[in-house]
Amino acid sequence: MDGFWMGFIYRSSYFGLVGFAFISNPSNPQVIYMIRSNPYKDKSYEPLIEEKLKQLNEVKQKTKIEWGGFERLKPIITNTLKIKFERAEILLKEAMRSNDDNKKLDMLLMMLRAYDVLIEEAEKQGIKKLESHIRCFDWDGQIWYVTDFDYELPRARAVHSIDKKAGFISVQELFRSVPKELMDMRLEIALMFEGSQFVRVNKNV
After folding, report:
1. Are 71 and 143 in contact (CB under 8 A)?
2. Residue 109 sits in the same domain as residue 174
3. pTM attached to this predicted model
4. Partners of 7 in beta bridges
5. pLDDT, tens digit, 9 for 90 and up, residues 125-152
């Protein structure tokens, strides 16, 4: 057979060892095979998947507490990053439903990198972390920043002024908006059931 063999191999921190071999033929070049050696090949996948899943959950929770989560950042970050992040979430869900441990691990690592990029973009855009007295809620697609007292609202608006479409409200204002009759009814119900206990029942269906 005319032509000659060629090949190469390289190491990737993400893919491990990857190599190609092919025949170079002027009339019919052919790729013969590709090999991939996962860096976790000799280790049990299950503990690694559990470790990365736990790490991802911790990152998600930290992002929620410090930044208000992806829902708060989504209207402010670039549209390209928003699409990539949402796509990564879909791919991760699909991977976790599959029986492919290699795919699960890859997608978990990808999602961890996605959160790193998300925070980098937030800082680049000048978005501020949430302060301890300011909570962030997504109510029916609308982002709201909530403080305890009215006097804290100016500070909240100044800190999060970049979020032009967000709403700002205090718990004081929320209480004022509740009709007195409804509040009285709520108190009556609370007193009616004072001392009641709710017990979890394990029932086999």
Report:
1. yes
2. no
3. 0.55
4. 21
5. 888 888 878 888 988 889 999 998 888 8
